[in-house]
Write a structure and sequence with these properties.
Number of strands: 12
Distance between the termini: 45 Å
CATH superfamily: Ribonuclease Z/Hydroxyacylglutathione hydrolase-like
CATH topology: Metallo-beta-lactamase, Chain A
Number of helices: 9
CATH architecture: 4-Layer Sandwich
Strand order of the largest sheet: 1-2-3-4-5-6-7
Structural class: alpha/beta
Number of domains: 1
Helix content: 25-40%
Largest sheet: 7 strands, mixed
Bound molecules: zinc ion
Order of helices and strands: HEEEEHEHHEHEEEEEHHEHH
Length: 275
């Protein structure tokens, strides 16, 4: 495979951003099953997930516009057709998650859903999409999430939970795959919650309180399969080699709470409290 010719990546893809090694978002990943009828179709740095339903496909997040061809290829490698995407759900308004929306929608005619909070913020502050220097096709969502009304397509249902903090409208997704509960926190990064960033973004310090409150709420959900909005958050790519018939290495009820607890401790430190 072509990616074997590339230099090896560090264990933590985020090191690439700070140390200037091979750009991990340009490295393809063979798509893999993370749960029943649920697949990873992102690249080596940012996640995208395909949910198969009885009435077409749901795509959660789109990666970046220059890398969107990797998403198309991943979907095709799984034996699906990108034209069968009926719904695109966006976790949050940063470029690495919604940069590919326009191309994917043009190819499929899919409806696009995101949070009203993030849509409003990206209209007011397009600089906060962080698309600067990258191609970015504008789009408008077809509908906004409503946490009281699960997103439904065919025989699948995805519950959304507004988990603000990383952005004002970061949204997390929870859904059954077979008899297992999958959880995808839409954005855990604390890089947008420091004093300097909040000031630049015109956001109140209470964004940290919002982040913490939402974290404490979703940590109680009995998630059995944790999906990373970036796979490195929970070491997903490293587990691909452990996939065997009858063994799903992503099925581990012990991941969700410690993953969130780590971020809870970090935001509390940022808030000057004892963790
Ligand atoms: Zn982000």
């Amino acid at each position: 495979m072509s990616r074997k010719a590339l230099p090896p990546l560090p264990a933590d893809p985020f090191e690439c951003l700070t140390q200037g090694c091979e750009r991990p978002w340009e490295v393809d990943v063979d798509p893999f099953e993370v749960a029943e009828r649920t697949y990873y179709v992102g690249n080596n740095w940012v996640g995208a997930y395909l949910v198969e339903t009885s009435d077409g496909l749901i795509l959660i997040d789109t990666t970046m516009q220059p890398q969107v061809y990797l998403v198309f290829e991943a979907i095709r490698k799984l034996g699906f057709a990108p034209e069968d995407i009926k719904l695109i759900l966006i976790s949050h308004m940063h470029y690495d998650h919604l940069g590919g929306v326009r191309a994917l929608r043009e190819a499929s005619g899919a409806r696009v859903m995101m949070s009203r909070e993030d849509w409003d913020f990206m209209q007011a502050r397009p600089d906060m999409i962080f698309a600067e220097g990258y191609p970015f096709g504008d789009f408008e969502p077809d509908a906004f999430f409503d946490d009281d009304v699960p997103v439904r397509l065919g025989d699948r249902e995805i519950r959304t939970v507004l988990t603000p903090g990383h952005t004002p409208g970061t949204t997390s997704f929870f859904f059954d795959a077979g008899d297992r509960l999958c959880g995808l926190h839409g954005g855990v990064g604390l890089n947008t919650l420091g004093d300097a960033f909040l000031e630049k973004a015109g956001m109140p310090r209470s964004a940290r309180d919002d982040y913490l409150a939402a974290m404490l709420k979703v940590r109680e959900l009995p998630v059995e399969i944790t999906l990373g909005s970036h796979p490195g958050q929970v070491g997903m790519i490293e587990k691909v080699g452990d996939i065997r018939p009858g063994h799903n290495p992503f099925l581990d009820p012990g991941i969700w709470k410690p993953f969130l607890d780590n971020r809870i401790a970090q935001v509390r430190a940022l808030m000057g409290e004892e963790a």
